[in-house]
Amino acid sequence: MPWTPTRAAVLLAAMTMTAPTALAESARMTGRFAAPYRDAAMLDSLRVGRIAGEDGMQLGLAIERALARPDIEGRTHFDLVGGRGGDADGLLNGNVVTGVQETRFKRKEKECVEREGGKRDGKCLREEEVEKDCTRRVINVNADLRLAGPDGRVLYSVSRPRRDETSWCRGQNPSRTTEEAIRGMIIDIAENVRRDIVPSVEDYSIRFRESTRGLPKPLERPFKDIVKQTQRDLRGACAAWAAMDVQAPNHPSITFDLGLCAESAGEYDKALSFYRRAAPLIGRGGNEATAGAERAQRLIDGRDDEAARRRGRGPGRR
Q1: Which of 31, 123, 138, 233 has its CA 20 to 30 A from that of 239?
Q2: Which residues fall within 8 angstroms of residue 198, CB to CB, at 6 or more apart?
Q3: Is 59:185 a contact under the CB 8 Å cutoff?
Q4: Does this model's pTM top 0.85?
Q5: Which one, of 200, 228, 237, 211, lies nearest residue 20 by Cα?
Q6: Residue 154, class by beta-carbon neighbours within 10 Å (0-12 exposed, 13-18 middle, 19+ buried)?
């Protein structure tokens, strides 16, 4: 099942984690996030097979280009195999249906009916609402896609509908041609396929929590000083928060910030524990600690998936 995307992560093992740096009151990291469809992402090689429909070839090529694009570390995730007879771990195929419908309608628009000196470029002296003949164009593109593994098991199956609507009146041109609109939707579908089955590697930053509410008065100023310290010495600030946690255990900001410290150090299981502790302390339902716990879990999943993939363990055998 797909996971709700939240931002997180740094790859361990063979990938080198960039040293965390401070950006204002934030921890800045480079992260690898597990793909929503994790089993599909475990494949080593993939072939984009036949996609039926008038725009099927265009979609197939767009998906190939999207999957072939390297991440910010210069790596591509899949070995793409071309040709109908290519031997690959996974085969992606499907069907795309495109429909274009144009309807006529009338619309009132303000129009200059009298200009200074009677010239076309003269200053407008009087406007009136004029009924115009107009055209509304609706384009629907729906792609049904399926990715099967080496044993024939379906690892990824989605329907991706897209709709584009535009209108124009007599004397005007549409903002985009039919071909341009279809191409844009095809590219968007292809990018969604990449986001679904390829782990994402991104630079991201998370702000430290700065609220001192509920903190003993003597600790308020030292806490704020630690927040400022993150700009120049993140590791030292994290050590100071760990010491303060003994003095004020279960304070929401300290607990959350220790989670962020653990995340920035690549200690994802520890970060998950801190975020889960902080969430009920902060309250208000979905808060930054809840988001942090989701992010840490995807971090752990990304780490584990990468390790399993490197060991050569296929889909469903983590």
Answers
A1: 31
A2: 35, 41, 67, 77, 78
A3: no
A4: no
A5: 237
A6: exposed
Element (H, E) at 258: helix 252-264
Q: Which residues of 28-38 are buried (b: 16+ CB within 10 A; e: fewer)?
A: bbbbbbbbbbb
CA dihedral 258, 259, 260, 263 (to 10 degrees): 120
Q: For residue 6, what are the CA distances in angstroms to 46, 156, 270, 290, 302?
A: 26, 20, 18, 11, 12
> Distance between CA atoms of 115 and 125, rounded to whole angstroms?
5
Where are any strands of DSSP class E within 173-267? 200-207
- Is residue 25 classed exposed, middle or buried when 0-12, 13-18 and 19+ CB atoms within 10 A define those classes? middle
What would the pLDDT profile of 25-49 be if each residue is shown by its tens digit? 899 998 899 999 999 999 999 999 9
Question: Taking a C-beta distance cutoff of 8 angstroms, is the pair 139, 299 a contact?
Answer: no
What stretches of 13-123 adopt beta strand conformation (E)?
21-23, 26-33, 45-52, 79-80, 90-115
With CA atoms as reference, report the closest residue to 198 among 51, 49, 44, 317.
Answer: 44
User: Within 10 Å of residue 137's Cβ, how many Cβ atoms?
Assistant: 18
One-letter amino acid identity for 88?
A
Higher pLDDT, 42 or 18: 42
- Strand 154-169's sheet: what is its strand order? 79-80, 45-52, 90-115, 124-148, 154-169
Whether residue 314 has pLDDT greater than 80: no
Among 107, 102, 103, 90, CA closest to 148: 90
Structure tokens at 125: 């002296």
